[in-house]
Design brief:
Elements lengths: L4 E5 L4 H12 L3 E8 L6 H12 L7 E4 L22 H4 L13 H16 L3 E3 L15 H13 L2 H4 L5 E3 L7 H10 L22 H13 L14
Parallel strand pairs: 1-2, 1-4, 2-3, 4-5
């Protein structure tokens, strides 16, 4: 199993773009994979392409089409409204699973990425999950990631032969401001990233994802390079 290749789950958002920068810093050959799962907007797919292009791996950027297979989320179903204007306490309540949770999304993404990684002889997989800002998402929690590592050992030929693929979640315990600082320090192309759940350009600035991103940049003391539809004090 080659340790030089890494499959990076790349949504095109702030976290996954920073995660890609970490994989690059650590010397891996980047093999980004992006999932189209029926999101209400496709702007993040374009962002992912731009990030891949910035790292000169657009020719290795794989987009998996899962449209129509995943439903039951405000991010996929037109009849479920995307929440806006929520407080930080509401957004980070670990006892509430928000309507923006996409059923088993990271379980599906990791399973497909694992198959891809094993097929190309990759030694690692990167995912930009974060347990602090998205504590209400069961598939972002450390215990889920740890459990999937065990699944990787048991459910692959690589694991059975003692060549376990490493699952890395370098942003797992970082605050959003720490993620911003890390991305800036690694010259991650954050200007190409897109986080808005509404999928607008400029970004809406009031959905959960925008608010958490804005707060992260403000606390990091850095101006976000993307535009917003509302005035932001940096």
């Amino acid at each position: 199993m080659s340790s030089s290749k890494a499959v990076v789950i790349l949504s095109g958002g702030l976290d996954s773009t920073t995660c890609m920068a970490v994989a690059k810093r650590d010397g891996y050959e980047l093999y980004p994979i992006t999932f189209y799962y029926g999101q209400k907007h496709s702007i993040e797919l374009e962002s992912a392409k731009q990030v891949a292009d910035a790292y000169h791996v657009l020719d290795r950027h794989f987009i998996a089409n899962l449209q129509g297979m995943i439903k039951g989320s405000a991010l996929t179903d037109e009849e479920i409204d995307i929440p806006t204007g929520r407080s930080l306490e509401e957004m980070t309540d670990e006892n509430e699973i928000p309507v923006t949770y996409v059923p088993a999304r990271n379980l599906i993404f990791l399973s497909i990425a694992l198959s891809y990684a094993e097929s190309i002889g990759a030694g690692a997989m990167f995912i930009g999950v974060n347990a602090l800002d998205y504590s209400g998402y069961p598939d972002c929690r450390p215990e889920f990631i740890d459990s999937f590592r065990r699944v990787m050992q048991l459910g692959t030929a690589a694991g059975a032969q003692g060549h376990t693929i490493e699952l890395l979640a370098p942003l797992q315990h970082l605050s959003k401001s720490e993620i911003v600082r890390l991305g800036v320090s690694l010259d991650a192309p954050l200007e190409h990233s897109h986080s808005c759940y509404q999928g607008t350009i400029p970004s809406c600035g009031i959905c959960d994802s925008c608010q958490l991103r804005i707060k992260g940049f403000q606390e990091a003391g850095v101006a976000d390079p993307i535009p917003y539809a509302i005035p932001i004090q940096w």
